[in-house]
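Researcher: Hi, I'm a grad student and pretty new to this. My advisor asked me to get structures for two proteins we've been looking at. I'm not sure of the right format, so I'll just paste the first sequence and hope you can take it from there.
Model: That works fine. Here's the first sequence with its structure tokens right after it:
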Amino acid sequence: MASELTVDAVRMALDLSRMRAEVTGWNIVNASVPGASFFVVDQSAAESALGVAAGEDTAAGYQALSAARNSSLALVEERFDVARPGLDELVADSVSAGLQYQLLSEALGRHFGLMRLAVTGRSGA
């Protein structure tokens, strides 16, 4: 995967993690409200684009990320027909989204650090 493609893919994954955390936050706020809306995030289009970007074909990866960026990144649906998860499960989802965001941020920081070392010509040791 090309360096620019890697940065674009990580940026998209960061956006998805942020959106997941926001929607989970909405659901946590409404967890104790009877009859409140439950929001579900459909990230399938963006996840399939990230899967294509992770493949060997760089051109297809660029095209998939561009198409996902031009369309909606993810759909947030208000659902009334699904069983509401418990507060523990919602908090676990929120923590999971936060940890995923942190992991991606650290990976991106390392990537930029390695690029800087390559440009300056230092070994980093």
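Researcher: Oh nice, that was easy. Here's the second one.
Model: And its structure:
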Amino acid sequence: MQRLGVDITRPNTTRGHGEIHLSLAPVDVSDGRPTLIADADIPPHKRLGRPRKSTLCHELATRSLSTSHGVASPSAAVESGDHVYNRMLFPFADVVCLFADDVGGVEMIAQRLASWLSLETPSTSSVRPWLVVVTNGGDENSVRNQLLQAVRKRTNVHASERFHGVRVISLADMSPKSLRRHLRSLRWDILSNELSYMTETKRVERVLASCLFSATHLAGLLRHATEHLGDADAPPLSFLAVSRLDNPVAADLQAHLARFLTHCDSVDALKRFAVPVVASSFLLDHYPPGMHLFDPRDVFQVFYKDVCHNVCGAAVLAHEGSTDLVLPSQFSKIIEAQMVRMFRQLTMGQSAASLHRQLVAAFAEDWGRLRSDSTCFLCLRRRPQFFPECGHGQCMNCVKVFGVTSAADPWLINVDECLLCGRNVGMKIRVKPDTASVRVLCIDGGGTRGKYPLKLLKQLEDDIGLPDHPVQENFDVVFGTSSGAISAGALCINGWTVDECIARFESLSNQAFTPRGVPSIPIIGSLIRLMMQIPFFAAVVRAAALLLFDSRYPSQHIERALRDMFGSERSLVNYSAADTMGAMVGMTVATVQDASACIFTNYNGVGQRGGDHGSFPFSDDAIR
């Protein structure tokens, strides 16, 4: 390694049996580009060496390697070494350089090479490394032929299936003794130059294949390969698949696309409007900030082709009143072609979010007639959670991506206008920090005694003592039952202070719990009012009214009071003060028919539930 100009510093000055050390090639050798060198050996023994003690600057993680059929064998160490090299190093290597004298000669190299070729394909990448064999004697062509012939005796797999090419370089001294020292140094320079040239050709090939990774991405991929070394059934490493492990494609993406495409009533609208929007949404989905710029053709084939093929048959194969047809294969091809065209702008430095923002804004007139309670049309992959006055619901992710973070509060996001129709909406949405726990407030019922939980909250607010900070802003989830639901709605949906809620609650109680009036029938009405002064008769009348009307108090009183408090035109999920304070509000209710339990919320839940769901009640209906 030192003869090649690699400076090995502590703690890598000595390498134990079975260890792999990573070093950086010097700048003059790598032409200014960082080149990582893995220094290792081929285990010649029947056992692995002891692992070195953990150093102060490195984390030590221990993982087990599976052996053949779970039973240890004398060759387990050698097989384990082959497995590690095949799964962990070869997918990332540009050049594999073997020194024949260090590993036992050409026959030993042929034996190990045949073993590597018989293993499963290490990765799905089209980039294959060079194989370089360095010898101290013999003609290079003769040694190469000897090596390949020995490999063919051991396996039917050709070396070209795993390696870009096989190169033999000899360091033998064939010159007079007086020139050997100088020429031997020259041979090392030739080896170094050959390795540099091969590395550069592989770098160019990786650029063309969109798999030249940054140090951050390379470290993540290496970590993933290391963590799955012990999984004997793991599929070949796919760089593209690994990049989406923490951000998988939405499982219900096909349903979201189908809802969107049903609004396209002609093939012209499909190609002019839907195709660019869908293609741009795929770029937005796959290329968030920091994502490696994989080839969009590969991205589409792996993640989106099947979805497009299936949704075409379900939604846009034909249009009513038109003889034009869009075949699934045709739809997939035009989406892929559109992705490739848009991707060029990403390579010039534009983000996928800004590209998508510009594209959806250009279709403002088309968005004007589109509404959905189940699909965020801005990203086409999530359920909307926030509904401005224009009715174009947005999911939390789109609010974070396209909204503007407040300069005074990093967790408050301003959404000044709808990105779809361009209408001014003036929403302020608070998001919960990722590291914060959930704070829950539950308010029980109690009829006219429902003001006491409010008084308790008032005492809590006074004890906290933060000016201009209402107590309800200290909670992320607020649920209420019966009169507690009224309090939860007043505090969070209306954004009233606790004092105002207490005052309005007392007024509401007086208005809602007014006894039924006596019928204004001449003579009979006066007689009934007179007899109501008799306690026994009054009790009988109230019991009869309870049985007849199934309620002690008339419903129109409380309905009128709730409409005055919450309005009759606003849906519970519409933008409200709860969104500004970041509160998720829920109300437990029961149906009139069979008293089955239901939950009304101001947030559009993600996922599907059995039974009746998905309707958005008005605020006064939910609380009633």
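Researcher: Is there anything I should tell my advisor about the second?
Model: You could mention this: The first helix runs from residue 27 to 30.
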